[in-house]
Amino acid sequence: MGRRAASAISYSTWFLWTAANGSTAVCSFSNLGDITLGLTNEFNALFCAIVVALTAFKHHRFHSRIR
Fold first, then answer.
1. CB-based contacts of 19, cutoff 8 Å, min separation 6
2. Does the global pTM surpass 0.85?
3. Is-contact 49 18, C-beta < 8 A?
4. How far apart are CA 51 and CA 53, in angstroms?
5. Tens digits of pLDDT across the chain (67 residues)
């Protein structure tokens, strides 16, 4: 990956994946009572959110250096 790899990340896609995994986790816990599926999706949502946060941090840092 190059120095501009963070610019190739689509925020909307990662937000959508975060929301989908989060809602699946809630459904798994509340409707299905499936703790394993719920925790798996909860961790997926968490790590999707981490990707968004790291990308935003890198993007901000890159643009701060240019100015």
1. 45
2. no
3. yes
4. 5
5. 555 555 677 899 999 999 999 999 999 999 999 999 999 999 999 999 999 999 899 888 877 777 6
Give yes or no for a contact between 9 and 51, defined as CB atoms under 8 angstroms apart: yes
Task: Tell me 67's DSSP state.
Answer: -
Distance CA 38, CA 31 (A): 10
Tally the residues of the chain: 67
Distance of CA 56 to the CA centre of its chain: 11
Tokens standing for residue 50:
């981490």
Q: Which amino acid is at 51?
A: V
